[in-house]
Specification:
With 262 residues, the protein is of the alpha/beta class. The protein folds into 2 domains: 12-42 and 174-257, Rossmann fold (3-Layer(aba) Sandwich); 45-171, Rossmann fold (3-Layer(aba) Sandwich). It is 37% helix and 19% strand. It is built from 12 helices and 11 strands. It has helices spanning 23-31, 51-58, 71-77, 98-106, 121-125, 132-135, 151-158, 178-186, 198-208, 212-216, 224-232, 244-257, and strands spanning 12-15, 35-38, 43-46, 65-68, 92-95, 112-113, 139-145, 162-172, 192-194, 219-221, 238-240. The strands form 2 sheets. Strands 3-8-7-4-5-6 form a 6-stranded mixed sheet. The chain has a 5-stranded parallel sheet with strand order 2-1-9-10-11, sandwiched between helices. The longest helix is centred in the C-terminal third of the chain and has 14 residues, at 244-257. The chain starts with 11 loop residues before the first strand and ends in a 5-residue tail after the last helix. 40% of the residues are buried.
Length: 262
């Protein structure tokens, strides 16, 4: 008896994560029978000025919490910070989600606080450890990319914490493959797009917003901020998934299994 086809058999799924983070999602798509087309919409590079990170690294024992907003923040901050047995005993490492926590653990920082569900500032701020009574008077360092959302720092400051932002990487739009991507998109080559940030969505619209096929292609994203913006931009098939690569894969598989992918 022949085995049933895999849910993404014959489907081409665009993976738009930064290149350093795309491997797990791409492998998952292939495991489900699909073809992963890698087209990073964000390029991640170190901040040109390392001075802010080095200043915080020298004062790290003064802080109660060290918050990492992404796996990229871990990769670009940890080489300048103590890790493993040298991590300050009273300093609590905090990750915005499970993927960031795994990156910290791989670097030797295993005692990490992170939300059991979700992977954003809202879920982090809902933790009891970040209540007003818990953070009042505490010093908190937030390692992140340049720019980005201000909600986390603003809320913690309003709750009485002393917050320092530490930019450790910067983001830019795609720097290669744009013409080929647009040509394949216009030809109807892609069965679905995956997105993991609102900034990536904006780069996608800037690049290919003139193509009618863009908004007709099913778009999968793990956060309401992204899906809301996609719908507002005119995408006609927007699917909200659970967080992390596992959520995107589950959403893709379920959607295809229900024969809703073209």
């Amino acid at each position: 008896m022949n085995a049933p086809p895999l849910p993404l058999q014959g489907r081409v799924i665009v993976v738009t994560r930064p290149r350093e983070q795309a491997g797990e999602l791409a492998a998952g798509i292939r495991a489900l029978g699909g073809e992963a087309w890698l087209f990073p919409l964000l390029e991640i590079t170190p901040c040109p000025d390392p001075a802010p990170l080095l200043r915080i690294a020298a004062r790290l024992p003064e802080y109660r919490f060290a918050v990492f907003v992404s796996a990229n923040a871990v990769r670009h901050a940890l080489p300048s910070l103590p890790a493993g047995a040298d991590w300050p005993a009273h300093l609590r490492a905090v990750a915005v989600g499970a993927g960031t926590a795994r990156a910290l653990a791989a670097a030797g920082v295993t005692d990490c606080l992170f939300p059991s569900e979700g992977a954003d500032s809202e879920h982090l701020l809902a933790l009891p450890e970040f209540s007003e009574s818990a953070v009042r008077g505490q010093k908190i360092a937030i390692f992140r990319g340049g720019g980005g959302r201000e909600l986390l720092a603003q809320t913690l400051t309003a709750r009485g914490a002393e917050v320092d932002y530490v930019p450790v990487y910067q983001r830019s739009g795609p720097n290669a493959g744009q013409a080929e991507f647009c040509a394949q998109l216009a030809a109807g080559r892609f069965d679905a797009l995956t997105l993991s940030s609102s900034e990536a969505l904006q780069h996608l619209l800037d690049l290919a917003g003139h193509l009618p096929s863009l908004r007709a292609t099913p778009l999968f994203a793990p956060h309401a901020r992204i899906t809301d913006k996609a719908r507002a931009a005119g995408f006609t098939h927007v699917i909200s998934t659970k967080a992390e690569d596992s959520g995107l894969l589950a959403g893709l598989g379920a959607y295809a299994y229900n024969r809703q992918l073209p």
